[in-house]
Amino acid sequence: MANPDPEFDYSKRSQWLRAAVLGANDGLVSTASLMMGVGAVKTDIKTMILTGFAGLVAGACSMAIGEFVSVYSQLEIELAQLRRNSGRDGEGPEGGSGDEKEEEKLPNPLRAASASALAFSVGAIVPLLGASFIKDYKVRLGAVAACASVALVVFGLLGAVLGKAPLVRSCLRVLLGGWLAMAITFGLTKLIGSSAL
């Protein structure tokens, strides 16, 4: 059996996967909490679905823009360092294989932004799908909470495997954090909505 490529950086792949799991978890928790919050004061399905969809789009755009700005700043810093190291001022590599390899390792802002938006959207679509076909108000709220809970356990499991952390503790941490976010959003919105009416 052929040995794996010794130059392949498995730690980088792990970092990207962990970032994707965190982005999906963020999309799941924020969208589910938003839908639960609106569901605390509005019983119609259209309002809940539109709110969740708006949260998906806004969150994905926000994540993509934030990731692009952050990674682009990192890229500029690393490019400036490469130029200082190579002794050239603002010029690209001229056939130097070492420089070419270094430039291949540089972060890609567009790829990072796309991955971040996609990961957020994957997580955010879970509670949307859970609520889309249920007309009964209470059952719909339960479906959103149940779908979000199952997905939280899955994301916690993936994060634990990638981060080599204890499985049960990681899953519980993610699950309880998601439940807390949904409960706080639901409770505060119910309180403010009731007092405002």
DSSP summary, beta strand count: 0
User: Spans of 5+ residues with little confidence (pLDDT < 50)?
Assistant: none
Helix fraction, binned, reads: over 70%
Q: Describe the global form.
A: elongated
User: H/E order of the elements?
Assistant: HHHHHH
Tell me the Rg in angstroms: 22 Å
What percentage of the residues does DSSP assign to strands (E)? Answer: under 5%
* Distance, first to last CA: 70 Å
User: Which structural class should the secondary elements be placed in?
Assistant: mainly alpha
In round numbers, the mean pLDDT is: 83
User: How does the major sheet shape up?
Assistant: none
How many helical elements? Answer: 6
Structure description:
- The protein has 197 residues and is mainly α.
- The protein is built from six helices and no strands.
- The protein is elongated.
Q: What is the strand and helix layout of this fold?
A:
Blueprint: H1 10-39, H2 45-86, H3 97-104, H4 109-132, H5 137-163, H6 167-196
Helix pairs in contact: 1-2, 1-4, 1-5, 1-6, 2-4, 4-5, 5-6
GO cellular component, one term: vacuolar membrane
Region (Disordered): 85-106
Family: Belongs to the CCC1 family.
Brief synopsis:
The protein is mostly helical and 197 residues long.
Descriptive labels:
197 residues
